[in-house]
Design brief:
binds pyridoxal-5'-phosphate; 7-stranded mixed β-sheet; Aspartate Aminotransferase, domain 2; globular; 5-stranded mixed β-sheet; alpha/beta; 38% helix
């Protein structure tokens, strides 16, 4: 019996597996970083066994697998995958070179031409580009329906619909999708479907992370992550992950082997050694700061709207409290804020430009879930592929680990400096 199971996720993410058959490092306090593209095979028989067994689930308790070649499987990445599946409460995990590689693989390994995906209208810009620029050309049908409009969704689902796809919270607008409500609808649809044509719920959980939301508990089938963000946490590694049911594992691993978008062992190591053990600590601190910053923004007359799921004014506050719970069961509204200056009082662009030039505690940069507070304008940057549709004057803020007082002071100085004089 594993002692580890008695410990809370926060502790488990610090220590990892007690022992892993994937690699014997029982005398290392920190797991070593493997960096071998290929593996010595003692015999041709061992080589052929490795190829035959490829695609099977490798557990920490089983036999050491036959490693053959890094693109197929390797120990550091595999241990990270075990950690990610465990913390999301899923059966398996397959990592990728980036979040986009994970998203395109999780969809691509399931869909065949003629199949359809229904996606929420607002998603990360490159995901939107995948749906609008690439999939229609490849014979994948795409519909965009508000996932909270269950009647419209029910009416839109056809026999060719395979996937319902969304982010919750959405990037950048922080809208939430009620996962349990979707589950009910999907169960209804699936009652009349064969096993191999079940409709699946895919959620990109990058913003919340498993610290703040475990979508499988609410009824999702597949969870996606950009490890580049909160899970990596330090802004040094690109990566992505798919947490999936066991029946999907072999197909997803084959897809990764043949399309080749693997996570490098060096990135896997950094995410496992730095990112995961500090996840709870970073997110708690960033949320504490986000609360102070969001309340401060909400009280400023120059700011027309402040969106943060922990504010009582948040339109889906009740759903936020239900869906966003941390490892201890406490409310976890996250580290992302979305706000819109009142254009009569402040030009958003002038405000952001002032910050880019003068603020020490905030950095004008895309990405999020970093140790540093990052600010950007989605409509003209991360979501420009929408053509301005995501709110031209709105600003996305990803709270870092700085002192909240400094962030607020820098925001205040910038607002005062660019405030239009009232006539
Ligand atoms: C919600 C979300 N999903 C996926 C991605 C893509 O991740 P990556 O940049 O690691 O490919 C991003 C990137 O910003 C994101 O914000």
């Amino acid at each position: 019996m594993s002692k580890r199971k008695q410990y809370r996720p926060t502790t488990r993410l610090v220590h990892g597996p007690e022992h892993s058959a994937k690699w014997d490092f029982s005398h290392h306090v920190t797991p070593p970083l493997s960096s071998s593209t290929t593996y010595r095979l003692d015999s041709a028989k061992r080589g052929s066994r490795g190829f035959m067994e490829f695609g099977q689930h490798v557990s920490d308790l089983g036999e050491t697998p036959v490693y053959i070649y890094d693109r197929l499987d390797e120990p550091t990445r595999s241990i990270l995958e075990g950690e990610l599946a465990g913390v999301e409460g899923g059966e398996c995990c397959v990592t990728f070179a980036s979040g986009m590689a994970a998203i395109s693989a999780a969809i691509g390994c399931l869909m065949v031409p003629g199949d359809e995906i229904i996606a929420h209208p607002m998603v990360y810009g490159c995901t939107h580009s995948l749906f609008t620029n690439w999939y229609p050309q490849r014979g994948f049908k795409v519909q965009r329906i508000d996932m909270n409009d269950l009647d419209a969704l029910r009416a839109a689902i056809t026999d060719s619909t395979r996937i319902l796809y969304f982010e919750s919270p959405t990037n950048p607008t922080l809208q939430l999708i009620d996962i349990a409500a979707l589950r009910e609808l999907v169960d209804d649809v699936n009652a009349k479907r064969s096993e191999d044509r079940k409709l699946l719920i895919y959620i990109d959980n990058t913003f919340a992370t498993p610290f703040g939301q475990r979508p499988l508990e609410h009824g999702a089938d597949v969870v996606l992550h950009s490890l580049t963000k909160n899970l990596g946490g330090f802004g040094t590694e690109l990566g992505g992950a798919v947490i999936c049911p066991e029946w999907m594992l072999a197909t997803l691993l084959l897809y990764r082997k043949d399309f080749g978008g693997i996570l490098s062992s060096k990135s896997a190591w950094a995410i496992m050694v730095y990112g995961l053990p500090t996840l709870a600590l970073r997110l708690k601190r960033q949320q504490y700061t986000a609360k102070k910053v969001a309340k401060w923004l909400e009280a400023r007359e120059e700011i027309a709207q402040t969106i943060w799921p922990g504010l009582e004014s948040f339109p889906q506050y009740e759903l936020a409290k239900r869906q966003h719970r941390d490892f201890d069961g406490d409310f976890a509204p996250g580290n992302m804020i979305y706000f819109t200056p009142d254009p009569k009082l402040v030009s958003a662009e002038a405000f952001v430009n002032y910050i880019a030039q003068e603020a020490y505690s905030l950095t004008l940069a895309v990405s999020l879930g970093h140790t540093k507070t990052l600010i950007e304008m989605p409509a003209s940057m991360t979501h420009s592929v929408y053509g301005g549709g995501s709110g031209g004057q709105s600003i996305r803020l990803s709270i870092g680990l700085e002192s909240p007082r400094d962030i607020i002071r820098d925001l205040g100085t910038a607002l005062d400096a660019v405030k239009k004089r009232k006539k």
